[in-house]
Design a protein that fits this description.
258 residues; alpha/beta; 10 strands; 31% helix; binds 6-chloroguanine
Length: 258
């Protein structure tokens, strides 16, 4: 599949061609702004995301933040005001990137159906509910943070959402962008084999999924539950509800405290 564009100024003809295609028949357009576009080279060439791209349910492009710098050395970062370790991503290239990708230069002028998502450990938690919101959009721009941070004016005035994928620190937002895209794309209508298969899974009903087993029924003395082999659908459904509740209590008691 060749809808990748390594956006730089020389590629603008190719970008234009792609944009008209997107406007006509792609449900969701995703643009990633990153200093490591190569990180994403093969990331979307597998499984459900590959199929969704082939079916033109989604287009995904990674763009090099450096292509929106105007200085000779393509500088994207600078030292933090007030001192401290590390480097901070400068606002100008990020604002320029978002304006060229969305037409909006700040959050207020962003069209409905477009979201500008800053990936950062300071963000609100990424959840299944947020993935569903994103899946209903026409365009997502994912901004991958790096170094010690991103100039706060991006969060204040540009991003519609600042999102974190969990309570741990990644060295950059790129792995988080993959997570957000995967969770979102699989919710697009037609992305899964059956339209209903996303409706009964972990988190959509507040519980973890029930355990699953397949052949053989006895693996080196580890037995699958007999009830699953009986063909008694009412009993199986009862067992599954119970097993899901037990597993949730054991691994995620926080999900039951509401
Ligand atoms: Cl979105 N970015 C970074 N750098 N670290 C994270 C994160 C995001 N979410 C959790 N940790």
């Amino acid at each position: 599949m060749k809808d990748w564009v390594w956006q730089n100024r020389k590629d603008c003809f190719q970008v234009k061609t792609l944009k008209s295609k997107i406007a006509n028949d792609t449900v969701l357009r995703i643009d990633i702004v990153t200093i490591f576009p190569d990180f994403f080279r093969e990331a979307f060439d597998y499984g459900i995301i590959r199929r969704a791209r082939a079916a033109q349910l989604v287009s995904i492009q990674a763009h090099d933040l450096r292509s929106w710098t105007s200085d000779r050395h393509h500088v994207v970062d600078d030292r933090p005001f007030g001192g401290g370790d590390g480097m901070v991503l400068k606002p100008e290239p990020i604002f320029a990137a978002v304006e060229s990708l969305t037409g909006a230069s700040h959050r207020e002028s962003l069209a409905a159906g477009k979201r500008i998502i800053l990936l950062s450990p300071q963000g609100k938690p990424f959840t299944q509910a947020l993935a569903s919101e994103f899946a209903g959009c026409e365009q997502l721009v994912l901004i991958c943070g790096r170094y010690e941070g991103v100039d706060e004016r991006v969060a204040e005035a540009l991003a519609s959402d600042e999102v974190s994928i969990g309570d741990y620190v990644l060295s950059g937002g790129e792995p988080a962008a993959l997570v957000v895209i995967d969770a979102t794309v699989r919710l697009l209508p037609g992305a899964l084999g059956s339209e209903t298969s996303a409706a009964h899974e972990s988190f959509s009903d507040g519980l973890l999924d029930c355990p699953q087993y397949t052949r053989p029924p006895d693996f080196e003395g580890l037995r699958a539950p007999d009830v699953l082999l009986t063909g008694n659908h009412a009993e199986i459904a009862r067992w599954r509800r119970q097993a899901a509740a037990e597993k949730t209590k054991r691994n995620r008691p926080d999900l039951l405290e509401e």
